[in-house]
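Exercise 7b. Backbone tokens:
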């Protein structure tokens, strides 16, 4: 693999002044030679002027957070990252590569989660080029490569986890956003390591059930929520009934046999667990 190498260059500002002086001098000499009708000096001045004009192509500017990749007749010779005006061999080809932080959002992908449910998922990926040589020479188009591999990693991740967790401690796409984002970043980085790209972070930006099962899944979520709420209500009601029986026995308010305790427990549970307010019935007779 081709790795990035730092290329030392000459300062651009002194070379700019030198080229200006040489260009002005050879133009002056060429004009003088033509006026003096000296063929030899005219040819020498013309050739020298052409050489100086070619030398002008050695000047180039590197902007902040950008890099210039230098090649000589197809051979990689190095990368210049230092901002400013530089001078190098005028026959070097200079390719600009941005090393700024970039981000893009994948399209909404329709995939099946671990349970086989069709879902829609999308992610935002933040990345930058860290090795300009690998980015240019190891892959055809590194920006497109990042997008395609990110979508492939997102598809693979979505198939390894369920949308909702059905077991305690199980990771899910909807409930464990931080953990899933970290695993997605690692997955994308493994795919992009050969392209000289660093993935700074990635996060899921869209997550939903596919439209054809969205209503059914909503009903299931509502049912799960109702069951969970009922469990809490029953746990609280049992605790309240137990506390009531203990307080009655401790204070000696009334002595109840097992049959009356069972009836009292039944009545209290009905009152505490009912969806609607119970209608009181006043018993005016004896309890026996």
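Sequence design result:
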């Amino acid at each position: 693999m081709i790795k990035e190498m730092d290329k030392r260059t000459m300062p651009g500002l002194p070379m700019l002044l030198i080229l200006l002086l040489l260009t002005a001098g050879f133009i002056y000499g060429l004009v003088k030679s033509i006026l003096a009708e000296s063929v030899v000096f005219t040819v020498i001045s013309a050739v020298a002027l052409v050489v100086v004009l070619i030398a002008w192509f050695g000047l180039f500017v590197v902007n902040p957070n950008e890099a210039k990749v230098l090649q000589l007749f197809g051979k990689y010779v190095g990368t210049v990252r230092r901002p400013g005006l530089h001078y190098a061999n005028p026959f070097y080809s200079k390719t600009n590569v941005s090393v700024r932080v970039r981000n893009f959002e994948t399209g909404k992908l329709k995939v099946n989660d671990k349970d086989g449910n069709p879902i829609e998922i999308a992610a935002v990926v933040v990345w930058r080029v860290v090795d300009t040589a690998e980015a240019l020479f190891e892959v055809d188009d590194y920006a497109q490569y990042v997008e395609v591999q990110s979508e492939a990693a997102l598809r693979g991740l979505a198939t390894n986890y369920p949308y909702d967790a059905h077991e305690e401690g199980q990771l899910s796409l909807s409930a464990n956003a931080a953990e899933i984002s970290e695993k997605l970043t690692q997955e994308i980085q493994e795919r992009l390591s050969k392209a000289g790209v660093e993935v700074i972070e990635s996060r899921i930006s869209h997550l939903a059930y596919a439209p054809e099962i969205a209503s059914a899944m909503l009903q299931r979520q509502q049912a799960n929520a109702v069951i969970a709420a009922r469990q809490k209500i029953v746990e609280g009601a049992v605790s309240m009934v137990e506390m009531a029986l203990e307080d009655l026995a401790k204070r000696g308010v009334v002595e109840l046999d097992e049959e009356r305790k069972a009836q009292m427990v039944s009545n209290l549970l009905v009152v505490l667990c009912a969806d609607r307010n119970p209608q009181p019935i006043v018993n005016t007779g004896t309890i026996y």
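Instructor comment: Residues 214-273 form one domain. The CA atoms of residues 17 and 23 lie 10 Å apart.
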